[in-house]
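[audit] Reproducing an earlier prediction to check determinism. Same input, same settings, fresh worker. If the tokens differ from the archived copy the diff job will pick it up downstream; this log only records the rerun itself.
[audit] input (169 residues):
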Amino acid sequence: MSRCVFLDRDGVLNKDNPNYTYTIENFEILPGVVEALQLLKKADYLLVVVTNQSGIDKGIYTVDQMKECHAYLQQVCNGLIDHFYFSPYHRSVNNSLLTKPGTLMFEKAIAKFDIDARQSWMVGDRGRDLIPARTLGIRTIQIGDEVEPEHRGEFIVRNLLEAATVMVR
């Protein structure tokens, strides 16, 4: 079985934008991300992005625009990310289990890559990122302090590079 680090996108890999991030020009990869991903790969973790992209459901941007951002991220990170899962739905429009805090993106990855949830991690910056991981027995690390007290991660760090050092200890 494989070990995996599940990664939220906005706020973990790239700067979060309240008006959505859907163009390469506005896709700002956070400091230390490439180094963190290299460290995790060296420790033999699969790297899987699980991201809510509700702007698609709202008609703000398209799946193709989102995929361009993911291709750019892969290019900058030298293809270190093994797979991207995304939910295009907004919870007010579609109550899909794909959308975090639903577990379906995680379950798909676990099945596809034969992932051992108990040997895996989720890194997110919101409670909705950590809830599905905890439900499935995946350990949690939160970036920043914007998570509700009842949903806090096992570890709280400032950025992905700090999170990576926790996971490879």
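[audit] rerun output stored. Observation attached for the diff report: The first strand starts at residue 4 and ends at 7.
[audit] end
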